[in-house]
Write a structure and sequence with these properties.
about 260 residues; Rossmann fold; 4-stranded antiparallel β-sheet; about 25% strand; binds adenosine-5'-diphosphate; binds magnesium ion; ATP-binding; ATP hydrolysis activity
Length: about 260
């Protein structure tokens, strides 16, 4: 497998406070990797650094982030933005904040496509968008495109935001807890759809989650984060069934059993 993302010895501080401490992580083309760990362990900080959307006060103090042979920390802002809008895509926890509440979903899809390809006709944009929504198992996409974001459920909105992210056929999809705000049934369905998307398109997925169950469902490989460090990583089955780190064992113990998961449903 060809290497797609190679993070080496990455250290990040908030002001003077180190929050990510010497993290190395590698993702191959087409791979699904979950970064698992408790709140505040540094997962989102890493994802934001890859995407180049770190907030003010964040300093990358050491390390490299190489995507497809390009050192993301060395390229200029323009090149980075180009990559982000095309070969790297992002999905967030709250799709409500991703969409503009004053525009129809369709107009936002058209704007997204025409920004990248100004010559694309509105009708073509809507056709391409409807197709993308259909691939995320959304019924009647033509009607959906005429609606405003508040007229959609959280699950429909998240499916729509994933569909939009996939429009550029990215090589890497970065997802920060994309199903955490959704009910457990919708969560399971969307994870299933991400797996199908990954199989059909070959887009690699780097997903951040605090939920080991999500990692088990989705990921080929996992890294477990604790207090800014990766304490264990490997293929998902090995880490789940033969964890060597005490914190990993703790995360696994706190996973709901199949029976409990059914009760929650
Ligand atoms: N806006 C902020 N200002 C100061 N420190 C922050 C801020 N956001 C995050 N941090 C620090 O970075 C650490 C890692 O945060 P984050 O990457 O968001 O964790 P996770 O996504 O794993 O929950 C937190 O424990 C916190 O100390
Ligand atoms: Mg986070």
């Amino acid at each position: 497998m060809k290497k797609l993302l190679d993070i080496t010895n990455l250290s990040i501080s908030y002001g003077n406070k180190p929050t990510v401490k010497g993290v190395s992580l590698r993702l191959d083309e087409g791979e699904i990797h979950c970064l698992v760990g408790g709140t505040g362990s540094g997962k989102s900080t890493i994802l934001h650094a890859i995407a180049g959307i770190s907030s003010k006060g964040v300093h990358i103090t050491a390390g490299t982030i190489v995507f497809d042979d390009t050192d993301l920390l060395a390229v200029d802002e323009k090149k980075r933005r180009q990559l982000l809008g095309s070969r790297i895509a992002l999905v967030f926890q709250n799709p409500e904040s991703y969409f503009d509440s004053l525009m129809t979903v369709g107009d936002q899809f058209v704007e997204f496509l025409q920004y990248r390809n100004p010559a694309m006709k509105k009708e073509t944009c809507l056709e391409v968008s409807a197709q993308a929504l259909q691939e995320m198992r959304l019924d009647d996409p033509e009607r959906l495109l005429k609606l405003y974001p508040f007229e959609l459920s959280g699950g429909m909105l998240q499916r729509s935001s994933i569909a939009m992210a996939m429009l550029t056929k990215p090589k890497l999809l970065l997802a920060d807890e994309p199903t955490s705000a959704l009910d457990i049934v919708t969560q399971a369905k969307i994870l299933g759809e991400l797996i199908v998307l990954n199989k059909n398109t070959g887009t690699a997925i780097l997903m951040v989650t605090h939920n080991m169950k999500v990692a088990e469902t989705l990921a080929d490989t996992v890294s477990v984060m604790y207090s800014g460090k990766i304490v264990e990583s490997g293929d998902t089955q090995t880490v789940l069934h033969h964890p060597s780190n005490d914190y990993t064992k703790e995360l696994i113990r706190s996973m709901p059993t199949m029976e409990e998961a059914r009760l929650i449903e």
